[in-house]
Design goal:
By secondary structure, this protein is an alpha/beta fold. Helix content is 27%, strand content 19%. The protein has five helices and five strands. Helix 1 crosses helix 5. The protein is globular. The termini are close together.
Length: 161
């Protein structure tokens, strides 16, 4: 890849983290973990409990969970691969927090996600208001199951980066 790239990801259970690490290796990209100020517990992630933290956050589109840090050097990158688990058919609201914490003007963001059963849904539409008009957000793909470096290298070629 000729453009400097970063794989930034949020992972609540480790599944997205594994996919992100493989993608960073395939892309020759740097890696940055998006961490919540208050880590999610197993109880927080129980989507069947309407009083669980994740359920409450996802019911409120204006929810912005705090980040543990804002140390990502976004200005140094041309392309940001942004990964997360799909929650309620979209990105968790902490992804909006991350996007609103930095200036992505003129950058290309390529989404990737992990999911137990749904696709990316309206994720691009829900994330677009969190970045400037000059930011390009591309719907990437689900990286479920056994993700290999070779498969990701072939996928990356489709972006001409």
């Amino acid at each position: 890849m000729s453009k400097k790239s970063l794989v930034a990801y949020f992972s609540a259970s480790g599944v997205t983290a594994r996919a992100a690490k493989t993608l960073a290796e395939a892309a020759g990209a740097d890696l940055y973990e998006i961490k919540p100020k208050t880590p999610y517990t197993k109880a927080d992630l129980n989507w069947m409990d309407k009083n669980a933290r994740s359920s409450i956050e996802m019911k409120d589109p204006s929810s912005r969970p705090e980040l543990a840090d804002e140390n990502a050097d976004i200005a140094s990158y041309d392309v940001i691969f942004l990964g997360f688990p799909i929650w309620w058919h979209v990105a968790p609201t902490i992804i909006n927090t991350f996007l609103e914490a930095y200036d992505f003007s003129g950058k290309t963001i390529i989404l990737f996600a992990t999911s137990g059963g749904s696709g990316l849904g309206k994720t691009v539409e829900k994330l677009k208001p969190s970045v400037s008009d000059t930011t390009v957000i591309k719907e990437g793909k689900l990286l479920n199951g056994q993700v290999t470096k070779e498969n990701l290298e072939n996928w990356l070629k489709t972006f001409n980066l």
